[in-house]
Each structure stands twice: as structure tokens, then as C-alpha cells.
Amino acid sequence: MAYIDAHKDECGVEPLCKTLQVAPSTYYEAKTQPPPARSVSDAATTAVIAKVHAESYEVSGVAKVHADLVEQAFTAPAPDRLWVADINYCRTFAGWVYAAFVIDVFSRRIVGRQLSTSLRTDLALDAL
Q1: Which pLDDT score, from 0 to 100, does residue 71 have?
Q2: If we measure between CA atoms, which residue out of 54, 49, 8, 48 comes closest to residue 31?
Q3: Residue 34, SS3?
Q4: Segment 79-110, tens digit of pLDDT
Q5: How far apart (Å, rounded) are the C-alpha atoms in residues 82 and 84?
Q6: What is the pLDDT of residues 9-51, one digit of tens each?
Q7: Which pLDDT does position 124 carry in this prediction?
Q8: Could you give the CA distance from residue 88 to residue 100 in angstroms, rounded to a whole number?
Q9: pTM of the predicted structure, to 2 decimals
Q10: How many CB atoms lie under 10 A from the CB of residue 4?
Q11: At 39, is the secondary structure helix, strand, or coil?
Q12: Intra-chain end-to-end CA distance of the chain, in Å
């Protein structure tokens, strides 16, 4: 949608939609709908991460950013309020095996898991 917004004055919405194989009605509907809750949440989290990173003269690592986001409070008042994740790996005779786990902090139960022979983004996403 951002590409269409950036070029609609010079080309028009309909020709751009045709080239991008997007129905113009889809474009107009997307412009009138509020952003999804996940997008709003991601934007807020990204702002916090950027703030922590800037305040540390852009040298904060994962541990420092994580401590500001979770605030070292590994307790939750109810299920599905706070999940933590980890990726581990183990060498086997057949090669490396990677395991991703997602744990509900309240119940301390594994709510998602995935194994893979490659350490790719899909591993963590599939566990989630």
C-alpha cells in the first residue's frame, strides 16, 4: 500500500493496482480499515527497542533490550499473558539439530515447540 501511496499522483491508483495485480477495491478497503492489533503492538515494541538502543549509544545487545521489555518480571497473573522463548541446539551423529521452545510463564508449560536441522526464521515462527 505504501508503494501505491507514493506513486499514485504520477501514475494513478488503478494502473498501479493493475501492474501489481491488486484489485483497486482491496487498496481502498485497506486504506479505510484500522491497522490490525498486531501491527499496533509491533510498532509500540519497536519504539521501545529503538529507545533503549538509542539511550545506550547504540550498543545495547539482546540481553539489555530484553530486560527493558520484560522488566525481569518472569511472573504472569494469568495464562497467555507472557510467553518466553528459547532456541537450543545439539550435535548428533547425523549433524546439528535445533530446537525452539515457547513457554507460558504462568503455567511453566511448553505451549509451542519445533525441531529442525537448520537454524532458520521458520524454526522460531513454527514454534510460536
Answers
A1: 66
A2: 8
A3: coil
A4: 998 898 889 999 999 899 999 999 998 998 99
A5: 7
A6: 999 999 999 999 999 999 999 889 898 888 888 888 888 888 8
A7: 87
A8: 6
A9: 0.46
A10: 19
A11: helix
A12: 27
Fill in the amino acid letter for 60: S
Element housing 125 (H / E): helix 121-127
Residue at grid coordinates 541446539 = 89
The conformation of residue 103, written as its DSSP 8-state character, comes to E
SS3 of 98, please? strand
- 100 CB-contact burial (10 Å; exposed 0-12 / middle 13-18 / buried 19+): buried
State the DSSP string of 57-116.
TT---HHHHHHHHHTT----SSTTS-EEEEEEEEEETTEEEEEEEEEETTTTEEEEEEEE
- The label of the residue with cell 545495547 reads 60
Overall size of the chain counted in residues: 128
- In the three-class reduction of DSSP (H, G, I as helix; E, B as strand; rest coil), residue 56 is classed as coil
pLDDT at 58 (0 to 100)? 76
Beta strands in 21-94 (DSSP E): 83-92
Among 73, 26, 25, 69, which residue's Cα sits nearest to residue 47? 69
Which band of pLDDT confidence, cut at 50, 70 and 90, is reported for residue 70? low
**Signed CA dihedral, 105, 110, 111, 117: sign only:** positive
